[in-house]
Amino acid sequence: MPIQFPHNFKALVVGSGGALGNAFVNHLQDETGCGQVVGVSRSLDDGFDLEDPGSIERIANRVREQGPFHCVIDATGALTIDGVGPEKSLSRVDAEALHRSFSINAIGPALLLRHLASSIDSGDAIYAKLSARVGSISDNQKGGWYGYRASKAALNMMLQTAAIELQRKNPSLRVVALQPGTVRSRLSEPFQAGVPTLLEPSASVAGMMRAMMALTTKSGAHFIDYQGKEIPW
To answer: Distance between CA atoms of 193 and 184, rounded to whole angstroms?
Structure first.
């Protein structure tokens, strides 16, 4: 059965200051059945830092008082870090850059899920995290982008493993790795040339929400794009 949230359901968006995070907040606020949307971002929440485990725990403890949440969206992530973009060749792989990519795109989100798990409501619920198609190992046809690809693949494994554990208590929980498409944003700006379909954040989010709400229960996580198409792990 597709997801059926109760009337006045609660939603949490982490990374609400970004293009997609803000679009998720706006979309959920416009949902007639949504009673409350809580946003968390670096700009609004002093000290929130995905590279700081203590700050992740503090934020999770604070928002817990406003839950439990039926829909949790983690819209965080980074492709270019401190002005350094993805590596185009093996010769550009750097230990510090790899470490930071994993911290922001995999480790921080995994700790966030750990601390937010108790704030997810029972019954039909969604925990969704922005991932990337380049995180698919079997879909890798072009190579390059070592740190970003590897960190997103690690994230996907975290989501799959957490889904199996959390669904033992709540079989109706959908854990979702999301591919938003190429969206008009600061993150994608250097990589938009030649992209056949460049999406506005609102269009991407509308597609992702529609796709998630249609998901049925299954063991483990879903990995889908904004059109609802399944992506191989």
So the answer is: 11
Question: Could you please report the per-residue DSSP string of 182-210?
Answer: SBSSTTTGGG-TT-S-PBPHHHHHHHHHH
Provide the pairing of β-strand 34-40 with 125-130: unpaired
229: three-class secondary structure by DSSP: coil
Q: Report the distance separating Cα 44 and Cα 28, nearest Å.
A: 19
The fraction of the chain above a pLDDT of 90, given in percent, is: 88
CB 56 within 8 A of CB 88: no
CB atoms closer than 10 angstroms to residue 206: 16
The closest alpha carbon to 162, from 214, 99, 219, 201, belongs to 219
Amino acid at 83: G
| Cα distances (Å, whole numbers) of residue 122 to 31, 71, 76, 127, 231 | 21, 11, 24, 12, 27
What was the pLDDT predicted at 42? 85
Inter-helix orientation angle 95-102/146-166, to 10° = 30
Per DSSP, the three-state class of 37 is strand
Write down the pTM of the prediction: 0.94
All domains in the chain, ordered by first residue = 9-225 (3.40.50.720)
